[in-house]
Amino acid sequence: MSKEKQQVSRRQFLNYSLMGVGGFMAAGLLVSPIRMAIDPVLKKTAAGDYANAGISVDDITTEPQRVDWTIEQVDGWYQSKPSKTAWVYKDDNDEIVALSPICTHLGCVVSWEGNDQYPDQFFCPCHGGRYEKDGTNIPGTPPLAPLAVYEQKVENGILFLGNAISRKGA
Ligand code: FES
């Protein structure tokens, strides 16, 4: 076994030391911008959050009424306040029903009794889609699935709505 010693010159030692310190400082400088660039993407979304729909439970009747509210939305670096809409009423069991107004055919907006020919139904003006009061699509009209239903909860007598849950295939 050879007993050759690897000699490191003073100049090499200085170079290695400066490279190490320089690399450490460069890494430190890069961490902050990289974290700022990635952080919004990694943040949890507000999915599952409920927003105040702006209506008291006492004001909800058996007649569907349109309710509009806005939510705070953060999408990566972009913040917005999109508006949301629901058709809200109490069913025969006094349970609150909150339906999405988005037609399941091609996404137009439905209205309660939107056509005089079809009382007690939701009507979509785009292609004549129709739904029963509970949001069930009426056979023979374009939509092939019921209206989505909002998640809901009541706090201090006020209705809060969450995500609209699709009932396709239900
Ligand atoms: S989008 Fe509603 S019927 Fe076509």
Automatic annotation (TrEMBL):
Q: Which Gene3D superfamilies match?
A: Rieske [2Fe-2S] iron-sulphur domain
What sequence ranges are listed for the domain Rieske?
Answer: 88-161
Cofactor(s) required, per the database record? [2Fe-2S] cluster
User: Which UniProt key words apply to this protein?
Assistant: 2Fe-2S, Disulfide bond, Electron transport, Iron, Iron-sulfur, Membrane, Metal-binding, Oxidoreductase, Transmembrane, Transmembrane helix, Transport
Q: Does the keyword Chloroplast apply?
A: no
Q: Which GO terms describe its cellular component?
A: membrane
Residue ranges of the TM segments: 12-34
According to its UniProt entry, the function of this protein is described as: Component of the menaquinol:cytochrome c reductase complex. The Rieske protein is a high potential 2Fe-2S protein.
Name assigned to this protein: Menaquinol:cytochrome c reductase iron-sulfur subunit
Highest lineage ranks of the organism? Bacteria, Bacillati, Bacillota, Bacilli, Bacillales
